[in-house]
């Protein structure tokens, strides 16, 4: 079944009168034995950021409509997808990051899935990002196992390191602390290298994020009653792993990810697998059609090596081969018209014509929007001439949801998507 039920009826009891911006969501909590237990309901809190963005908008009917919804009620919605959790302020791919996204009303939570040396599945955005997203370099016995240990900056060369999940075992992975993604290229010590969080993010919640295996992610998200969107990460290491004679092929990896949902008793209609590799989707459509029909093909049409026209042409091929949902980057679905107004792109219009569902990534990932044009920010590249300030993010969101017709928005801070979706009844 391919189903996006955008407003999730998880409300328990009446809304708290003193908390007009919250909704009750059924949940469980982490148990003392390492498992998950039924627990009291938690409040889905939006916090101040959506209000800040709306206040920063130019006067318009859209702004008036959004302001009219300021007191809610707000509910969990599948329009809002926690991209790696809530990495604007929490260490990505950690339990704390997922918890923050759930509290803000994300109906779907993401785990980027890669594998360890002993071929166990874990949540990391890249197979080889441990040196920037965890404290592995501060643990000498594990740093020594990295593909490349820390090399300090010097003689005009930036500091560097390269640590992969495939360098260590699952047990070793579980000893790590998640931190905010970032590194200092001018570092001469490990401590300096690890202190590279972008200034527009924060280390306030970066004490020791709880890293998760894929099975732990499944158990935790299931305990919240939410849905799953695991991304099968394209391996950095050669496949089969660890050597050509191994039977751990790309197909085995792709099947392993699906098997962990089946083993946990999770219905396919709660799972939206993702991949940037179209052959992964074709594999799932053939081997696991119930999951394959739910799958998202991650596309980057603005950087297609053959150009945007080729990316648009490929949509017909994907649709003819059974793909139901494409998930392009935000600049793939937005552009500007002759009046410098944000409008749907040709790619988005063609996807709609073909009947493809669209999910986009990633909202709230760009820092101060007044700088996106000068910085060449990727997420606003196709329409940055129309973006002058933070409030313009809500204009872009409006075009994506109401004009492009996206079914979901990956966001680094989902509160603004939750606010918008509830205000307009999505």
UniProtKB/TrEMBL annotation:
The keyword Transcription does not apply. SUPFAM superfamilies: PLC-like phosphodiesterases (SSF51695). Pfam families: GDPD (PF03009). Residues 1-17 form the signal peptide. Keywords: Glycerol metabolism, Hydrolase, Signal. It comes from the Eukaryota. Its EC number is 3.1.4.46. Residues 78-404 form the GP-PDE domain. Belongs to the glycerophosphoryl diester phosphodiesterase family. This is glycerophosphodiester phosphodiesterase.
